[in-house]
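input
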Amino acid sequence: MKKDIHLKNIREKNINDKIISYVVVGAIIIAIIVISLLLYSQKINQDVKDETITLDQMTDMIGDTNQYNEETESASTEIGKTVEESEEEAKQETVENRTTQNTTSNAIVESSSENTNTSANTIQNTTSEDTEETQEVKELTFEKPVEGEIVREFAQDNLVYSETLEEWVTHNGIDIKADKTTVVKSAEAGVVKSIKNDPRYGLTIVIEHDDTYQTVYSNLLTSEFVVEGEKVEKGQSIGTVGNSAVFEIADEPHLHFEILKNSIQVDPSIYIQ
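output
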């Protein structure tokens, strides 16, 4: 008996649990449907608002329409001009165009004239500069300081034999054969830069010419005709031939003569007449 009652209670409990479950599920479904309907309603209201034209928008549209009407009236006015007015305006534009063309042509002519004058001045200045430069680089010509045979040539790229040193050496000038006491003359006008006893080439006079050239007279016996700083003329006596050069003591009496251009020894044979 008790067992039957217990089983009956269990069945009733199970039935109640199922009913509660169904109620909960049904409530959840109803809630979902209600929420969906609310969201859908809000979307519809928003779409209606978006499609509604506000008062400000209508005002702007009316303003645009007025502007369009004004432009249309302006165009109509232009179209309504008489033939005479159109011809008058065309004539005026033609006159203005001709005036502009004349002004432009005058400006071009003036510019061309200025360019021509500038080019002529440039050519003249260039020619003057070239002439001055040619005068500046004009090579000097030197007279032979003594008359006689050249017994030893200029030698920088090759060697010459030295009787005194008994070996082959370079030679920075030329040796002009001349008797002792033969008068030595200045090869070109200039200023006596120095008179000295060179340890190799003996008594030596150096004359400077126009800041570019120097002439050197060595192996002298005397330098009694000039002093340092003295201006000398071309062909003026400056000393006498001797035999004072230690490096050339074994040679016959001669003048050791050098020419320097920008402080560099050059071949005197090229420059002397």
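quick obs: Residues 83-136 form the longest helix (54 residues).
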